[in-house]
Amino acid sequence: MFFRKTALLSSAVAAFALVGCASNPSDGKKWACGAPGLISAYYSGGNTASVHLQGFQTGGTYAVTKNAAGTEATGKTANGTTFVCKQSS
Question: pTM surpassing 0.85?
Answer without folding.
Answer: no
